[in-house]
Amino acid sequence: MGFLWAIIVGAIIGAIAGAITNNGKSMGWIANIVAGLVGSALGQALLGSWGPSLAGMAIIPSLIGAIILVLVVSLVVGRM
To answer: Beta-strand (E) ranges in 1-80?
Structure first.
C-alpha cells in the first residue's frame, strides 16, 4: 500500500512542478509520476529530508527537486 501512496504523491508533486514551470500541459500523467518520484529523490539528495513528509517523501525538498528536474528536461527537449 505504501508504493501506491508514493505513486499518488509523486504524481501530485510532478503536476505541481509542471504547473509552476508552465510545462504541465505538455506532460502526461506518467511523466508527472516520473517527475515527482525522480524529483523527490533528487530534492532529498540535494536538500535533505526536512519539512513535512508524506508517503516517505519530504514535500518541500521533493517539490524543489521536481521543479529542477522539469526545468532541466524542458531545456534539453526544447533544444532538440
So the answer is: 53-54, 57-58
In the chain, which residues have pLDDT < 70?
1, 23-27, 79-80
Closest CA to 73 of 7, 11, 18: 18
| Contact of 61 with 43, CB cutoff 8 Å | yes
Q: Which residues pair with 44 in a beta bridge?
A: none
What's the whole-model pTM score? 0.81
What whole-number distance in Å separates Cα of residue 77 and Cα of residue 55? 30
Helix (H) or strand (E) holding 60, with range, is helix 59-79
For residue 1, the model assigns a pLDDT of 65
CA–CA distance, 37 with 10 (Å, rounded to integer):
5
Distance separating alpha carbons of residues 42 and 20, to the nearest angstrom: 18
